[in-house]
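Recall the central idea of this unit: under ordinary conditions, the amino acid sequence of a chain determines the structure it adopts. In this exercise we apply that idea directly, starting from the sequence alone.
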Amino acid sequence: MKFLSLIQLAGMAVALMGENVFRLIGMSRPPSWYGDIVVKNAVPLCIGLYLIVPQILNGYIVSNAFEVVLDGTETIFSKIATGRMPQAEDLIDPLTKFGLMSVGVAPQ
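Accordingly, the structure predicted from this sequence is:
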């Protein structure tokens, strides 16, 4: 994810600053790949940088994980392990065993 973010940032710098980015880092002229790749394919490069790369990065961030952890150590439900969202019984039973009582239920 960090590597893709770095590629996106570098690509934006080259797209916005053009040949000046190479002068900024001390090169007297741009490398040969600049004309072949960047100048000839400017539109697809910008589309990739602004539309496609962020979607790829978002895929790394969003995992659809849903976990309920009790007391910071014990996982009582994991969507990753079960492949589904919890139902009431999935949460009530472990919480009751831990000592949580439902509202309106008198202890026996």
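The beta strands are 67-70, 74-78.
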